[in-house]
Specification:
Layout lengths: L7 E6 L7 H14 L4 E6 L6 H5 L7 H5 L5 H4 L1 E2 L5 E3 L13 H11 L8 E6 L5 H9 L2 E6 L3 H16 L6 E8 L2 H19 L4 E2 L3 E2 L2 H8 L4 H4 L4 H15 L10 H15 L1
Parallel strand pairs: 1-5, 1-6, 2-4, 2-5, 6-7, 7-8, 7-9
Antiparallel strand pairs: 3-4
Helix pairs in contact: 1-11, 5-12, 6-12
């Protein structure tokens, strides 16, 4: 455990469901691992926990067993492709905001037990603007918003970013256009949203990389396998590898040192301020 402070915490969110956020989270994690990075995914979509399906791994236990005290966090972690580690989410626990302070303290304590020397800790969040999502986003160093080039997805992504900026004063926001016809379309989508954000919110967001529409994505989901291992030569797989390289190229936020410790402390401080 020589390099614990270097862990980069990434929160991946979307304004609405159905835009491929969990598929992006899982395949980005594997693409980062294929570049030699140590990666862990936390399925923080506590209502619809499905990251284990996207990663193609079976999880006999999940986060509900940690919250009930039956298991420690270390005991529920499973390993997926390329050595990616997964903290399985707990379907049916809808509102972190409704947890008691004792339960919240238990969750924070459980994360402080993570001993792995990680390069990236990816938090796959629920869609929408719940207190839970904002609590987690506030505890991350980098915030990625997945969206499609559809009016409802664009509107919801903008609404999410507006709340992040105006209500929570969060920065380090980047866009990942998904299921677009080309990289050029993804860049145009980013440009149009970014200009609206600049004009109306006085801030700007960053662009990472787009994922093109690819029938192999749907096939891999039906096969309960990650796209990268299911169809390594596919166009979208190449996009995920490029996305991983863009993520690796992001300058670490040196003002936010501490890695997992930072994440735990930020989670704790946010929950206390909401209590």
């Amino acid at each position: 455990m020589t390099n614990k402070t270097a862990t980069q915490i990434i929160g991946i969110a979307s304004g609405k469901g159905g835009v491929g956020k969990t598929t992006v989270s899982a395949n980005l994690a594997i693409a980062l691992a294929s570049q030699g990075k140590k990666v862990m995914v936390f399925d923080a979509d506590l209502g619809l926990a499905n990251a284990q399906l996207a990663l193609g791994c079976r999880a006999p236990f999940n986060f509900s067993h940690v919250m009930s005290g039956e298991k420690t966090l270390q005991e529920i972690i499973v390993e997926g492709p390329m050595g990616v580690r997964l903290v399985p989410g707990a379907s049916g626990i809808q509102h972190m905001a409704a947890l008691s302070q004792a339960e919240t303290a238990g969750i924070i304590q459980s994360f402080s037990e993570i001993e792995e020397d990680l390069d990236y800790f990816i938090v796959d969040l629920a869609a929408g603007l719940s207190d839970t999502v904002m609590t987690f986003l506030g505890a991350c160093q980098h915030r990625f918003i997945v969206l499609k080039n559809e009016p409802s997805s664009i509107a919801d992504a903008y609404a999410t970013i507006k709340v992040m900026i105006q209500d929570y004063d969060l920065g380090n926001i980047s866009l990942i256009p998904n299921a677009v016809s080309s990289q050029a379309e993804g860049e145009r989508l980013f440009g149009s949203i970014n200009s609206v954000i600049q004009n109306f919110l006085g801030r700007q967001v960053d662009y990472l990389h787009s994922i093109v529409e690819d029938e192999m994505v749907l096939r891999s989901i039906k096969a309960s396998q990650p796209l990268i291992t299911y169809a390594p030569a596919s166009a979208a797989t190449r996009n995920f590898v490029s996305l991983a390289k863009s993520v690796i190229a992001i300058e670490p936020d040196t003002s936010l040192t501490g890695g997992m410790q930072f994440f735990v402390e930020r989670l704790a401080s946010q929950r206390i301020s909401q209590a």
